[in-house]
Amino acid sequence: MASSSSWEEGDAAAAAAAATDVELLKRAWRNEKAAPEILRFEAALVARAREQIQLLEETVEEFMENGVDDLVVSLYQMDLDRTLFLLRSYLRIRLQKIEKYMIHISKSNLWNRLSEQEQRFAKRCTEIMEKHLEQSVLSKLPYGYQSMLKQSISSEEDDMVPEPQLDTFVFCKTKGAVGAFQLDDIGDEIVDLVADDLYVLRYKSIKGLVESGQIDLV
Amino acid sequence: MAGQSDPHISIFSAPEVEFLAEDEVVEIVPNIRMESLNMICGDFGPFFPQIPSKVPLWLAAALKKRGKCTIRTPEWMTVERLTQVLEAERESPREFQPLPFHYVEISRLLFDHARDDIPDIYMVRSLIEDIRDVRFHKVETGLETISGRTHAVKLKNLSAMEVNIVRPFMVRALQAFYKHDSPQMIQQADTMGSKRSQGADRGPRRDLRPR
Amino acid sequence: MYGRRASQLLKELGSCEAGQLTPFDSDSFDQVTKECNKHNLQLQSLIRKIEDQNLDIQTTRNEDHFGAVIHHLSLTRNKRCLMAYMYNRAEVIQSFRWKVGPVLPQEIQEKLNYSEEEYFKSHSAAIESYMSELDLDLTVDMVPPKDPYIRVRVLDDIGEVCLGDHSISLTKHSLHFLRRTDAEQFISQGLMEEFLE
């Protein structure tokens, strides 16, 4: 890693900058796995990881052609395999969340958290699901009850859309001391979030901290 | 169909927890000379015979498996330290002693791959098993104390494997208490307590009335 | 009793092991949709009855109104059950693309209705096109990788075998360092075991 003097400030941003992309990817993977809703797509990170994977793939190939020691080749291969697994698993978890909550995602501001490709995937999935439910259930129901989103014509809002349960509890660790943190809207539930301590909290109450990268889900 | 959450989606499998543990850094003593490894996950080496070097556990295990190094037992994995930890675990029924977040997996990987490098391996293994048991018992008794509308549980020093084991039950229990103790479900005078909710208009946003 | 059959559909779902499917219960499914339409007819006739009496449909709270409400609620409940049945099955069907692959074996296919078969194909195609846009196969690497090489102990005399570009002699009790993929066939046959020192 490059070492520039400006990084020696010791603040959180510097620490994040000093982390390798693999560490960042691992964090993104863990958070995505543990969060009930889909998080913001780590576009730049994924792009960097893919670039490094490609570079290493080329290097490994070169090594093999040039008869570099099997040992070295197999060690690099393992590094490659590990990074590829993280990347694939990260992208896969996101797809599985989209599969699960496609309608909710496409109708809320979660939409902006998706990559372009994910948006196309979500759109297509929704159309396919719509068609499937339409021909197998909805078209067979009486007029007024044929909506996929509403139970009936008299529902005021969409009340048939599966949503992630934000009330669920998650295990999390803070990176730095967050300090006194308000756990509910009213403010009489305060917890002092100490660095590196492990907590079980309602996802909803720490959602902002996850999004801003101050807390990690484990 | 609204509000269903798949409990499986957010759980790490045992191989995944092990995968994470394999990135923990250990010290090896190589018996070969090898140039620096500039890997995606970081730069390691150069390696010289008999000169200790720090590498991730997966790399250490790979080198060890190929007969290229010995692995130094981490400082916390000695009989002396583990004996202290075990005693302290037994003495404090409500606290967990600080151990590496992946202590269970690290020790297992080392038992599997570097058996001959660990002094007093049988003692070390049995101490770690005892520590696991004592800690797990604490987790279980800790779960019994969940009651009422708990907003936060602090589990200082709980390890990754312990988190993973306790997660499904803990999450379900907390959710159930949260839901059933909501002011919408029981309209009663609030019991005062720091972990209890007191407002009347609070609680899960989920509407329980038929729509 | 209203709604009983619909709840049985869901019980069928619930009794099934996670990630598994029971055969599509078209019998119950059709009966429930029929029930829905019957509720609607009765609902409509009660509304007509209120209107015929020149009563205000919004404010009337007589027996016909409450009858209509019951039919309406029974209908929406049935609809929720039907949708939950289809939707939850669809989720399991989606997961087959990841677990089984793009072609379903006969014994799974038999459990799907026509629309579900179509759904599986279209959904697979959507995943396919996402992966080709990305130029990355996401159906491999489902579990964390391990060292591609493994140390094994031979448990029985296997003899001379050809692995890759060289042949080795696998005699009983001998130790070898092999590609995991090469060793796995022997391990699954009980002829080798992973050797941990």
TrEMBL record, chain A:
Q: Where is the GINS subunit domain?
A: 69-135
Q: Where in the cell is it found?
A: Nucleus
Q: What is its main location?
A: nucleus
The UniProt entry, under SUPFAM superfamilies, shows: GINS helical bundle-like, PriA/YqbF domain
Q: State the CDD domains in the record.
A: GINS_A_Sld5, GINS_B_Sld5
InterPro entries associated with the record: GINS_A, GINS_bundle-like_dom_sf, GINS_Sld5, SLD5_C, Sld5_GINS_A
Q: Which family does it belong to?
A: Belongs to the GINS4/SLD5 family.
- Protein name (database record): DNA replication complex GINS protein SLD5
TrEMBL record, chain B:
**Which chain regions cross the lipid bilayer?**
none
In this chain, the stretch annotated as Disordered covers 185-211
Q: Which GO terms describe its biological process?
A: DNA replication; double-strand break repair via break-induced replication
Q: Which residues form the GINS subunit domain?
A: 76-173
The UniProt regions of compositional bias labelled Polar residues, in chain numbering, are 185-197
Among InterPro entries, the record links this protein to: GINS_A, GINS_bundle-like_dom_sf, GINS_Psf2, PSF2_N
Q: Got a GO cellular component term for this one?
A: GINS complex
On assembly, the entry states: Component of the GINS complex.
* Assigned protein family: Belongs to the GINS2/PSF2 family.
UniProt protein name: DNA replication complex GINS protein PSF2
Q: Which organism is it from?
A: Ananas comosus (Pineapple)
- Show the taxonomic lineage: Eukaryota, Viridiplantae, Streptophyta, Embryophyta, Tracheophyta
From TrEMBL, chain C:
* Start and end residues of each DNA replication complex GINS protein PSF1 C-terminal domain: 146-196
Which intervals of the chain form a coiled coil?
A: none
One cellular component term from this protein's GO annotations in UniProt: GINS complex
Q: Which UniProt keywords apply?
A: DNA replication, Nucleus
**Residue limits of the GINS subunit domain?**
62-134
One Pfam family from the UniProt entry?
Sld5
The Swiss-Prot or TrEMBL record describes its family as follows: Belongs to the GINS1/PSF1 family.
**Protein name, please?**
DNA replication complex GINS protein PSF1
Organism, scientific name: Ananas comosus (Pineapple)
